[in-house]
Design a protein that fits this description.
about 90 residues, flat, 2 helices, about 0% strand
Length: about 90
Protein backbone atom coordinates (compact mmCIF):
# COMPACT_ATOMS: atom_id res chain seq x y z
CA UNK A 1 0.00 0.00 0.00
CA UNK A 2 2.80 2.38 0.87
CA UNK A 3 4.58 1.57 -2.41
CA UNK A 4 1.44 2.26 -4.46
CA UNK A 5 0.92 5.60 -2.68
CA UNK A 6 4.57 6.51 -3.22
CA UNK A 7 4.38 5.66 -6.93
CA UNK A 8 1.13 7.59 -7.31
CA UNK A 9 2.65 10.63 -5.58
CA UNK A 10 5.79 10.40 -7.75
CA UNK A 11 3.80 10.20 -10.98
CA UNK A 12 1.61 13.10 -9.91
CA UNK A 13 4.66 15.23 -8.98
CA UNK A 14 6.39 14.49 -12.28
CA UNK A 15 3.22 15.36 -14.16
CA UNK A 16 3.02 18.73 -12.45
CA UNK A 17 6.70 19.44 -13.02
CA UNK A 18 6.42 18.88 -16.77
CA UNK A 19 3.19 20.86 -17.03
CA UNK A 20 4.74 24.10 -15.82
CA UNK A 21 5.49 26.71 -18.45
CA UNK A 22 9.07 27.95 -18.75
CA UNK A 23 10.00 31.42 -17.58
CA UNK A 24 9.69 34.08 -20.28
CA UNK A 25 12.88 35.30 -21.90
CA UNK A 26 13.37 39.05 -21.82
CA UNK A 27 15.51 40.58 -24.57
CA UNK A 28 16.75 44.15 -24.23
CA UNK A 29 15.77 46.55 -26.98
CA UNK A 30 18.41 47.85 -29.36
CA UNK A 31 19.31 51.43 -28.43
CA UNK A 32 18.64 54.10 -31.01
CA UNK A 33 21.61 55.14 -33.11
CA UNK A 34 23.05 58.41 -31.86
CA UNK A 35 25.18 59.12 -34.92
CA UNK A 36 23.48 59.97 -38.19
CA UNK A 37 23.81 57.34 -40.89
CA UNK A 38 26.33 58.03 -43.63
CA UNK A 39 24.71 59.16 -46.86
CA UNK A 40 24.29 56.43 -49.44
CA UNK A 41 26.81 56.52 -52.29
CA UNK A 42 25.58 58.01 -55.50
CA UNK A 43 24.28 55.35 -57.90
CA UNK A 44 26.59 54.50 -60.77
CA UNK A 45 25.28 55.40 -64.19
CA UNK A 46 23.77 52.43 -65.98
CA UNK A 47 25.85 51.11 -68.85
CA UNK A 48 24.27 51.13 -72.28
CA UNK A 49 22.30 48.11 -73.46
CA UNK A 50 25.42 46.56 -75.00
CA UNK A 51 26.53 45.24 -71.63
CA UNK A 52 23.10 43.75 -70.95
CA UNK A 53 23.12 42.21 -74.43
CA UNK A 54 26.47 40.54 -73.77
CA UNK A 55 25.19 39.15 -70.48
CA UNK A 56 22.07 37.80 -72.16
CA UNK A 57 24.13 36.17 -74.92
CA UNK A 58 26.37 34.51 -72.34
CA UNK A 59 23.30 33.25 -70.46
CA UNK A 60 21.84 31.91 -73.71
CA UNK A 61 25.06 30.05 -74.52
CA UNK A 62 25.14 28.54 -71.03
CA UNK A 63 21.49 27.56 -71.32
CA UNK A 64 22.08 25.94 -74.72
CA UNK A 65 24.97 23.89 -73.29
CA UNK A 66 22.78 22.77 -70.39
CA UNK A 67 19.95 21.79 -72.74
CA UNK A 68 22.36 19.76 -74.88
CA UNK A 69 23.64 17.92 -71.80
CA UNK A 70 20.09 17.23 -70.66
CA UNK A 71 19.13 15.90 -74.09
CA UNK A 72 22.13 13.55 -74.10
CA UNK A 73 21.27 12.38 -70.58
CA UNK A 74 17.66 11.70 -71.55
CA UNK A 75 18.77 9.69 -74.57
CA UNK A 76 21.11 7.64 -72.40
CA UNK A 77 18.31 7.03 -69.90
CA UNK A 78 16.02 5.87 -72.70
CA UNK A 79 18.69 3.42 -73.87
CA UNK A 80 19.12 2.11 -70.32
CA UNK A 81 15.36 1.70 -69.94
CA UNK A 82 15.14 -0.26 -73.17
CA UNK A 83 18.03 -2.47 -72.09
CA UNK A 84 16.35 -3.10 -68.73
CA UNK A 85 13.10 -4.06 -70.48
CA UNK A 86 14.98 -6.49 -72.72
CA UNK A 87 16.68 -8.06 -69.70
CA UNK A 88 13.29 -8.41 -68.04
CA UNK A 89 11.93 -10.17 -71.14
CA UNK A 90 14.93 -12.52 -71.39
CA UNK A 91 14.83 -13.34 -67.68
CA UNK A 92 11.16 -14.41 -67.95
CA UNK A 93 11.97 -16.74 -70.86
CA UNK A 94 15.00 -18.39 -69.36
Amino acid sequence: MKIAAFLLLTVFTLGLASAQTPAPIVVAAVPAATTPAAPAPAPQPVAPFGNALQIMQALKATNDDLLNKQTATLQRLDELQKAAEQLKIYSKRG
